[in-house]
Amino acid sequence: MRPPGKSLPLISFTEAGAGGRFDDNGFPSGEGWEAIPFPAVEDTHAYALEIAGDSLLPMYRDGTRIIVSPAAPLRRGDRVIVKTRRGEVMLRELKRKTAKTLELKSLNQEQTEDMLAAEDVLWVARIVWASQ
Questions:
Q1: Quick one: CA torsion of 102, 105, 111, 113, rounded to 10 degrees?
Q2: If exposure means fewest CB atoms within 10 Å of the residue's CB, which of 18, 65, 129, 132 is most exposed?
């Protein structure tokens, strides 16, 4: 664990789905992470992802960096990173979370909404900050 407020690990969002990037709790692991300074995050497991391409426009543009906190509590309307048991990593808006399902809204209006069974979700982490 690193002290809060020193730096955060950073990888490209497109690399986030590669094996070995996260442990089973959604914490960054493995090699290939850069470090960026970010003094305001107190979650020692927080990390940064960099958006590549325009698939998340207009919410996030190419080069936007988002800070993700696995320890942050989840609320309806939060933007979240979700990793499924199939290895898919998604950036979505949380519509609803129950004991049995996770309802997600795509940030890209061309994509459909998702309803995932809770057992199909490995972890969910809240986006707490984004560069714009």
A1: 50
A2: 132
